[in-house]
Design brief:
The protein has helices at 10-22, 39-43, 79-82, 103-110, 112-118, 180-196; strands spanning 27-36, 46-58, 64-76, 93-102, 123-132, 135-144, 149-161, 168-175, 207-217, 220-229. Strand 9 and strand 10 form a beta hairpin. The protein is elongated and about 75 Å long. The protein is α+β, with helices and mostly antiparallel strands.
Length: 235
């Protein structure tokens, strides 16, 4: 796709950017990319800002994000590459981002099949997640065929930023006790949770995130992060 600088208005750049970003996703209920510039600035290799705003984004098979927002300002790009429809950064740009997960997102990410593979003589019915202002409660509902009992095995965790800033660690503040099934299941729950909250699950090609704050509100978890973009995701 060959264009003239004068043709490269914001709408054209938005379409180019949205197409490139969509290739990084398995699914998107909504994806908007807003580039602010004008032909004269672009001729100098400048974008005033770039905003990525999405809802219902699936980055991989098991993790959905209710919301994802990334904002970058003062981006340097190659005007020559832009002429062939390619947004190429000539230097890194910093910005900020936030990711919002709701209870349904977490329940889907945990998935019943995760626990079926780890447990024997136990039937896993479903996984429930409840997000409260001070904790997340993960409950796995199981059936024990040998005793014909239904059990709710739960873990209450408090998320916090891990030592690298690249993910969220979980403090186990309360859990089911004194049962063999709980002893077997709780480590699986915690291990799965740590994988879900690893920032690599939310990354796009060329974009790096450093968590600065974990905010918990009723029904949703928000990760606020500094964002660094070294290259724009390619289609």
């Amino acid at each position: 796709m060959f264009l003239n600088i004068d043709d490269l208005g914001e709408k054209t750049l938005n379409k180019i950017a949205e197409f490139a970003l969509s290739t990084q996703l398995e699914k998107a209920e909504k994806l908007n990319v807003r580039v602010k510039t004008d032909p004269s600035r672009l001729a100098k290799g400048e974008l005033e800002s770039l905003v990525i705003d999405g809802k219902g984004l699936v980055m991989n098979k098991y993790l959905r994000m209710q919301e994802l927002n990334m904002t970058f300002n003062a981006i340097a790009v190659s005007p020559l590459k832009a002429l062939i429809g390619n947004i190429e950064l000539t230097q890194p740009s910093r910005g900020f981002a936030w990711v919002v997960l709701n209870e349904a997102d977490l329940e889907s990410a945990f998935g019943v099949e995760t626990f079926k593979k780890q447990l024997q003589k136990t039937e896993v019915d479903r996984v429930n997640c409840q997000i409260n202002p001070d904790r997340i409660t993960i409950t796995v509902k199981v059936y024990l065929p040998e005793t014909r009992e239904n059990k709710d095995i739960f873990v209450m965790v408090k998320p916090y930023i891990n030592s690298t800033g690249k993910g969220v660690a979980l403090e186990n503040i309360c859990s089911s006790e004194n049962e063999e099934i709980a002893a077997n299941l709780i480590p699986v729950i915690l291990s799965r949770a740590e994988k879900i909250f690893n920032l690599s699950n939310f990354l796009m090609d060329g974009i790096d995130l450093q968590i600065e704050k974990v905010a918990i509100a009723p029904g949703q978890l928000t990760l606020q992060a500094a964002a660094n973009i070294t290259r724009f995701p390619s289609a």
